[in-house]
Amino acid sequence: MSFQNSATAFSSSREEAPFSIDELFFSRTDERGVIAAGNEVFRRISEYSWQELVGAPHKIIRHPDMPKGVFYILWERLKKGLATGAYVKNRAKDGRYYWVYAVISPIEGGYVSVRMKPSSKVFSQAQVAYAEALKLEANEGLTPEESAAKIREVLRDLGFPTYAAFSSFAIAQEMTARDTALARVEDGRLRSMKELLPRLHDLESEQQNLFTAFAKIRGIPSNMRIVASRLEPAGGPISAISQNYRLMSDEVTNHLGGFRVENGARSMTESVLSRVHHGIFMMAAARLQREVKMVALEAFLTAKEGDNFKYEVEVLTTLLDTYSIDSGAVLVSVFNDVTALTRSAKDLRQLVTGLDSIRVLCRVEAGRLGANSVSLMPVIDQLDKFHIEIDATLERIMHLSERVKTLVEAAMPRTANGSLHYHHS
Q1: ∠ CA(111), CA(29), CA(166), 5° rounding?
Q2: Percent above pLDDT 70 for the chain
Q3: Computed from CA positions of residues 314, 32, 326, 195, in that sequence, does the dihedral angle turn out positive or negative?
Q4: Per the confidence metrics, is the pTM higher than 0.70?
Q5: What is the pLDDT of residues 240-292, one digit of tens each?
Q6: CATH of 3-140, one of 3.30.450.20, 3.40.50.300, 3.20.20.60, 3.90.1150.10
Q7: H or E, element range at 85
Q8: What are the φ/ψ torsions at residue 76 (nearest 5 degrees)?
Q9: Rounded to whole angstroms, how far apart are CA atoms 326 and 283?
Q10: What angle do CA 10, 15, 16 make, to 5 degrees?
């Protein structure tokens, strides 16, 4: 169905199917996306009977205003076994629409989609983006894959390097907005995770500054040797200083490997950031899952759902456990890596202190040479600037690392007695 045709087909029903922000609903499908079950809220909002829903493809509630690229991204991730969140516009049987933020998770034999009413500022931005993507699909004849690529390009322009980064941001904002709407206190663990992100971005920036600074001094020992050849016989003091500086600077540069992972392909902070995005998503999804599980359990115990609904409660409980364990494992890995990063920064600082002593010797030798040292002074000035810059950068890295560790500890799950509860991967 084309964009033009879909607009005509549903022009008579532009009303929203109402449901309140405190309502949560879910549906379960098989691996082909055929509806197997759901709760009564799902059935009521969809306006279909259970006889019409069970056995029908889930696209029975798909709204034509949804870009195909979004579903391409969803299925691409789900087929990799990744729980995924997305804003989705659905259509009820009578043609009315309703927006949800859906968390869709692979389970044995199929998928579960848990939905809440979106209310954050991100939602309004997503609506605009969806409308633009839909126009592109219609006007330029984009395939679902091409549309997905365009959507990811838009997200990168907005500062989200991956769809996972965007979905973690969106679900965190939706949970915060939901807490506000329901007059609830914001979840402290999730707030700590959100506060991690700007610190990690600052930490990544400082690491890049560190790499750049060390790249600049690669030529200093060579420059010192050239100057030495003009000032003294071969093997003189300045030549020896330049040789020692080269050896120690090589050792320091090699130590920078402690700030990189994946055989140097990524900085450690970049790796941590991707896991924190995943951790935020899983933690927020766990909160949502806990709520929908309690809703389902209450409905089952009060006989608002059928006898076979017990299985759905068990599925939701298993997913909750999975989310909780996953987010806990992420936090442990982040804490361990940031601890290693702090240790690397301290070790590097000690090495730089040794390197600095050679710089001081160079300045002393320049003083001995007096007026003859004029050609050596630019090199010494460059060394002075480098060491001041490196010392300040390492200080900031250590400070940020400690702050990150504190926030990660605050986000850790706790046992009943309040002690930290670590889920080791």
Answers
A1: 40
A2: 93
A3: negative
A4: yes
A5: 877 877 787 778 777 777 777 777 677 788 888 888 999 999 999 999 999 99
A6: 3.30.450.20
A7: strand 84-91
A8: -60, -45
A9: 8
A10: 115
